[in-house]
Amino acid sequence: MSAPTERPLDGLTAIVTGAARGLGRAEARELARLGAAVVVNDYGQPGRDGSGAASAAPAEETAEEIRAAGGEAVAHVGDVADHETARDLVQQAVARWGKLDILVNNAGILRDRMVFSMTEDEWDSVIRVHLKGHFNTTRFAAAHWRERSKAAGAAVYGRIVNTSSEAFLAGSAGQPNYAAAKGGIVGLTTSSALALAKYGVTVNAICPRARTRMTEDVFAGFEVPADGALDPLAPEHVAPLVGYLASPAAARLNGQLLVVHGGMVAVVERPKVAAQFDTAKDAFTYAELDGLLTPYYEERPPNETFAAAEVLGLKRR
């Protein structure tokens, strides 16, 4: 266990994307509270589907909150799914504070539809913002750390925290685009973790559950505590884990996936083989597979729909 400190991120510079509202805002504030200087990125569009004109006001509001609390922060307005915008975001952090140490990828949109009704644009736009947005910022942050490491002849300090979702883990019938993007983010995380470890960079992902503008429909039926207690779905439950993963204390965590919500953190293991069937021949026949796999699945309980209410222990209104 590392020595406790109130400001483990002193002297470090962080970028948080999608940081004007919800999870990103809570994460940016937490990183600043722990000592980091923060670039608050957001496109500032009013619609959770990415619609509406961009605005600098939301990102600047979060940055001003951090400065008012005694921290350091600047706003960056732009769409991280645009390659050059992501380059500019990383360059802004380096130009302002001389280096980048932490990248928290959080920006995203929703365009929900059942797979048989989804349009090409609804698919492309969600994949673009979530998955390509994660790649773009990671690409330029990774290049920055690689160049610094080569120049120093030693490992440097780098942390990436990506945002996946339980929609990829447990399925989400009306979100094939979102679930696919979040699954892709886990693949990006594990690949980047392997590629960047030798430079001193760790890359991890979280699956947060929180009441935000993006999830207002999902959690609309769960009551908010009326006695002043912290909402189990408040983004503030998620932010401390992001702060920890961004800190020196988390140096041994790399390529990990963690679920976090309501005072709970769960470490997700990589997929395990549940059963294996072999044939003495060069290849299976249809009949052999039917004789092995059909009874195997007949004996297994049917897949259960993910029950958020049971896991959260919340009551519907």
UniProtKB/TrEMBL annotation:
<keyword id="KW-0560">Oxidoreductase</keyword>
<dbReference type="InterPro" id="IPR057326">
    <property type="entry name" value="KR_dom"/>
</dbReference>
<protein>
    <submittedName>
        <fullName>Short-chain type dehydrogenase/reductase</fullName>
        <ecNumber>1.1.1.-</ecNumber>
    </submittedName>
</protein>
<dbReference type="InterPro" id="IPR036291">
    <property type="entry name" value="NAD(P)-bd_dom_sf"/>
</dbReference>
<dbReference type="Pfam" id="PF00106">
    <property type="entry name" value="adh_short"/>
</dbReference>
<dbReference type="InterPro" id="IPR002347">
    <property type="entry name" value="SDR_fam"/>
</dbReference>
<comment type="similarity">
    <text>Belongs to the short-chain dehydrogenases/reductases (SDR) family.</text>
</comment>
<dbReference type="GO" id="GO:0016491">
    <property type="term" value="F:oxidoreductase activity"/>
</dbReference>
<dbReference type="InterPro" id="IPR051687">
    <property type="entry name" value="Peroxisomal_Beta-Oxidation"/>
</dbReference>
<feature type="domain" description="Ketoreductase">
    <location>
        <begin position="12"/>
        <end position="238"/>
    </location>
</feature>
